[in-house]
């Protein structure tokens, strides 16, 4: 006889409902065990057979930080495809590789932190590369597709569990942990929340990550919007994971709470379920949670709620299913065979091809097969990676792609770097010693790192020295005087922890880039400042190093400190001379320009200008001066302001991943017609842009939705080698939807894709509405002379706006324009449909009062937090002196005699009220500051008014204005 095995606990039984399984496991955990689960690195519980679990596997456009993986185009490039089906397939491939890599390395997590759905509101945002579009509808369509691929198509078991980043209104890197985005109610609901909302409602999202910033004066990690909006959009338990270090920021940098226990408790109660803080060391965070429990700031029920959400995700991933079920939970995604497959390589190329946008073409493209091509520029032989890339398994640069497509004998190359030597004050030159051939030169991060920011520079190579001849260095100025210096063997000068300068980096990179320098004029030469340490380069007896923190070098024994070395820059060859020589040999010149994703525009660093850096502008001019048949190929994470008029053609692609060069060459040769479309507006100059911290897209007329100027290239723009005609527009409204149909014909002589775009706008709005707004789109592939009929169904919500006067969505009755075309400005068909709706009704202010933040227009006003927990108030913007609020069509009824305001303030101030265009009718003054910013008092004054009027409120001084009430 054999003893019967004990029955498996209910949480192991896949036949039970998930909620019952979660409740069973939750009931078996102790309070200490549950508290420990709230850290990113949830520990194992051996007594229950529960394994350790980590939230957070970066997978923005491929598996990142874990070594070699398929690298797809940057997210903004995927957005440029305007192709949800393609992006869904990319998401599925990434999920397959996550599962395959996890089968070999259990450090690879299944809770993936992707995609980023922050809207590309401002093109100077450093993380532009991570988002999909400036438009919420397009962003949601692409994000929904990516999450659907990541999730998989099985009804109960998920391939991976995607987490959307970064909640909410986050488009600046400068001071991102302490700045507050002032977001009026209309912008909040019509713009910033919308991309999250529609993606979550689609059902393939496991959670969200709050952003570092504050919104309306309150940190996102304690935002009431998590409860008031996010969790109402789905019946699933969503896992909210903090961003790295953000819980500590609540006290240390934002000073929003006095203690970490208070901050942690507030975050848990707001809805944060997993704390990413202190790296792999969970003890500080767990101690804060336990301290909050002891102080009565949290209850065990609060902890249970957070743990239940985490467990729900783990059950969806199949973690607690029997092995035979768990192994099949992701289908082929569980096997190592799903990694770097031919299908994945082909998909990477397809995605790169569909991301290429042809901005201008006067007949230069496509190139004839026998064309002699000069490919020049700083990005011509580069395949750049960004912070959220994996390590390349395959690599194709523009130069390599053109060699393969046209033959090396027809392609001439010039990089365009400035070739220099650096002469010291002693007359010697900086020299790069040769590297030992036996030294492993594996790419940075190839071994995989859960946090590549922790990778330190190499010290296994000799530091620079000096001799009579020196080494010729390749200098690139990436803009704002930020330089890289590269040795002849391709290694970049860098500085490791020991302060020595070495040629040791394969590419610039790292959380703090150690491969950038600046030449600072000094006397008759230049100091060479290393930007990663902020210190100057010095020459010492034992090699070249950077100065110590006090400005002097770290001396060797017996050596006295010395000031920074003054170098003479000896120019061996200017980049434009090499470019001009190459351009003169060719029929056509392709100038490949753009950015390095780790320099001058990246996470932690916003851009300062739309302009192409001066070094690359010089190369473009040099090529154009020699050969008028010049095309500009921009490979970049963001838009530029360039003058296209002198150029025969202009193309843009994001950094396209492993197949970027092959894809670009195929487009240039006409093997495939360009079919990418701009996912954001390209502005003509910096003067077209609002301040980076101005989040009021309505008031400051931002994005294609509201911009009233002339863009360089409009949203949705992209040319083709074919031509398309549009016809037979018909629109029919049935009360709940508007059905739009049209026909599109390829009138060209090549097979090509067209992206048909449908926009709507209100013809005669009573409030500011978008000039036009994307309501639907579809990519179609048509052979020459082929025609297709398209049908679109637009929901009634496509015509609504948030009515601040009454706190709800409203569609105004009247005519709406329906526009169909090839971009937001290239409209081919238009018609008008008349829709029913709710007419505007004046604000019933005696009955409802006025929430201060529910204004129609404002000037000099910021929205701030009413309390730390919830609500909004307003105050005068820093440096404004006074702020003005306009509330339109306020109905004061037959008799209003008094006004009351709720205010708090750190100093004296006043609230002035005026009606219509008249002068001030009454003033309410706070003479004595209140006890704190949330200690509100009531001010009251007479105000005799009847009927409907526009109310203008002027706020002066250090007041927070919460609301106004009116009585008879």
Provide structural commentary.
- With 968 residues, the chain is α+β, with helices and mostly antiparallel strands.
- Helix content is 20%, strand content 29%.
- It has 19 helices and 46 strands.
- The strands form ten sheets. Strands 37, 38, 39, 40, 41, 42, 43, 44, 45 and 46 form a ten-stranded mixed beta sheet that branches. Strands 13, 16, 17, 20, 21, 22, 23 and 24 form an eight-stranded antiparallel beta sheet that branches. Strands 1-2-3-4-6-9 form a six-stranded mixed beta sheet.
- Helix 1 (18-28) packs across helix 11 (300-316) and helix 9 crosses helix 10.
- The radius of gyration is 30 Å and the shape is globular.
- Residues 328-336, 440-447 and 551-562 have low confidence and may be disordered.
Q: Notable features of this structure?
A:
single chain, 968 residues, alpha+beta, 10-stranded mixed beta sheet, 8-stranded antiparallel beta sheet, 19 helices, 20% helix
Anisotropy-based shape: globular
Structural class: alpha+beta
What is the β-strand count? 46
- Major sheet: 10 strands, mixed
**Radius of gyration using CA atoms only:** 30 Å
Helix content: 10-25%
How many alpha or pi helices? 19
Strand portion: 25-35%
- Detail the poorly predicted runs: 328-336, 440-447, 551-562
Could you report the average pLDDT, rounded to the nearest whole number?
Answer: 94
From the N-terminal CA to the C-terminal CA, the straight-line distance is: 91 Å
């Amino acid at each position: 006889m054999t003893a019967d095995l004990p029955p498996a606990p209910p949480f192991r039984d896949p036949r039970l409902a998930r909620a019952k399984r979660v409740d069973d496991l939750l009931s078996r955990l102790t309070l200490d065990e549950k508290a420990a689960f709230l850290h990113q690195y949830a520990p194992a519980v051996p007594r229950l057979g529960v394994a350790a679990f980590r939230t957070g596997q970066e997978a923005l456009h491929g598996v990142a930080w874990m070594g070699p993986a398929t690298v797809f185009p940057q997210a903004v490039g995927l957005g440029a495809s305007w192709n949800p089906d393609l992006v869904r397939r990319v998401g599925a491939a990434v999920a397959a590789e996550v599962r395959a890599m996890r089968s070999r390395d259990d450090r690879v997590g299944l809770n993936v932190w992707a995609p980023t759905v922050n809207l590309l509101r401002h093109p100077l945002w450093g993380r532009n590369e991570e988002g999909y579009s400036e438009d919420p509808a397009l962003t949601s369509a692409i994000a929904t597709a990516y999450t659907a691929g990541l999730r998989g198509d099985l009804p109960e078991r998920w391939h991976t569990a995607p987490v959307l980043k970064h909640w909410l209104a986050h488009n600046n890197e400068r001071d991102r942990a302490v700045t507050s985005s002032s977001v009026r109610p209309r912008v909040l609901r019509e713009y910033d929340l919308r991309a999250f909302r529609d993606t979550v409602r689609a059902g393939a999202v496991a959670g969200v990550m709050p952003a570092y910033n504050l919104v309306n004066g309150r940190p996102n990690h304690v935002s009431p919007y998590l409860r008031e909006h996010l969790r109402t959009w789905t019946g699933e338990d969503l896992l909210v994971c903090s961003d790295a270090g953000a819980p500590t920021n609540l006290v240390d940098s934002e000073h929003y709470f006095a203690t970490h226990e208070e901050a942690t408790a507030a975050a848990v109660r707001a809805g944060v379920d997993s704390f990413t803080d202190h790296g792999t060391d969970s003890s500080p965070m767990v101690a804060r949670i336990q301290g909050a429990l002891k102080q009565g700031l949290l209850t065990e029920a609060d902890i249970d709620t957070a743990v239940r959400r985490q467990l729900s995700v783990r059950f969806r991933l199949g973690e607690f299913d029997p092995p035979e079920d768990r192994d099949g939970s992701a289908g082929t995604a569980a096997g190592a065979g799903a990694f770097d497959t031919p299908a994945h390589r082909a998909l990477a190329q397809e995605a790169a091809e569909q991301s290429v946008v042809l901005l201008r073409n006067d007949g230069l493209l496509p190139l004839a097969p026998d064309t002699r091509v000069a490919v020049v520029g700083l990005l011509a032989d580069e395949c750049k990676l960004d912070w959220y890339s994996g390590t390349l398994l395959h690599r194709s640069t523009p130069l390599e792609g053109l060699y393969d497509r046209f033959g090396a004998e027809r392609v001439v190359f010039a990089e365009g770097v400035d070739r220099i030597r650096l002469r010291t004050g002693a007359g010697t030159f900086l020299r790069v010693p040769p590297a030992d051939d036996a030294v492993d030169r594996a790419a940075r991060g190839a071994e995989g790192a859960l946090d590549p920011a922790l990778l330190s520079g190499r010290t296994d190579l000799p530091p620079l020295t000096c001799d009579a001849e020196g080494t010729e260095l390749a200098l690139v100025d990436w803009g704002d005087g930020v330089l890289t210096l590269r040795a002849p063997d391709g290694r970049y000068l860098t500085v490791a922890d020991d302060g020595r300068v070495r040629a040791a980096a394969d590419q610039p990179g790292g959380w703090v880039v150690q491969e950038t320098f600046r030449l600072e004029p000094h006397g008759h030469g230049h100091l060479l400042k290393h930007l990663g340490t902020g210190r100057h380069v010095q020459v010492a007896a034992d090699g070249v190093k950077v100065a110590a923190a006090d400005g002097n070098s770290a001396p060797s024994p017996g050596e006295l400190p010395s000031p920074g070395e003054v170098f003479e820059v000896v120019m061996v060859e200017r980049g434009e001379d090499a470019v001009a020589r190459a351009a003169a040999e060719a029929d056509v010149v392709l100038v490949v320009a753009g950015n390095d994703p780790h320099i001058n525009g990246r996470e932690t660093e916003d851009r300062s200008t739309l302009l192409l850096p001066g070094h690359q502008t010089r190369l473009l001019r040099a090529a154009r001066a020699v050969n008028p048949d010049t095309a500009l190929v921009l490979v970049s994470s963001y838009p530029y302001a360039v003058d296209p008029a002198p150029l025969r053609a202009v193309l843009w692609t994001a950094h396209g991943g492993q197949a970027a060069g092959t894809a670009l060459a195929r487009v240039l040769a006409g093997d495939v017609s360009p079919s990418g479309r701009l996912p954001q507006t390209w502005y003509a100059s910096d003067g077209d842009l609002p301040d980076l911290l101005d989040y009021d897209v309505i008031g400051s007329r931002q994005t294609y939705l509201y911009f009233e100027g002339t863009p360089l290239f409009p949203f949705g723009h992209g040319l083709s080698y074919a031509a398309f005609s549009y016809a037979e527009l018909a629109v029919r409204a049935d009360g709940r939807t508007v059905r739009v149909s049209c026909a599109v014909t390829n009138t060209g002589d090549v097979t090509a894709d067209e992206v048909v775009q449908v926009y709507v706008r209100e013809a005669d709005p009573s409030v500011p509405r978008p000039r036009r707004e994307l309501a639907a789109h579809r990519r179609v592939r048509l052979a020459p002379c082929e025609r297709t009929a398209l049908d679109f169904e637009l929901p009634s919500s496509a015509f609504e706006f948030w009515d601040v006067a009454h706190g709800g969505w409203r569609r105004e009755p009247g005519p709406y324009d329906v526009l169909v075309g090839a971009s937001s400005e290239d409209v081919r068909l238009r018609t008008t449909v008349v829709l029913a709706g709710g007419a505007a009704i004046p604000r019933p202010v005696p009955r409802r009062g006025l929430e201060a933040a529910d204004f129609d227009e404002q000037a000099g006003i910021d929205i701030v937090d009413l309390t730390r927990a919830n609500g909004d108030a307003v105050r005068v913007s820093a440096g404004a002196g006074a702020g003005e609020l306009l509330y339109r069509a306020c109905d004061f009824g037959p008799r209003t005699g008094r006004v009351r305001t709720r205010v708090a303030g750190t100093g004296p101030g006043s609230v002035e009220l005026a009606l219509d265009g008249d002068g001030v009718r009454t003033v309410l003054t706070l003479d004595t500051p209140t006890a704190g910013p949330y200690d509100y008092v009531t001010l009251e004054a007479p105000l005799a008014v009847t009927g409907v009027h526009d109310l203008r409120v002027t706020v002066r001084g250090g007041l927070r204005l919460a609301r106004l009430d009116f009585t008879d």
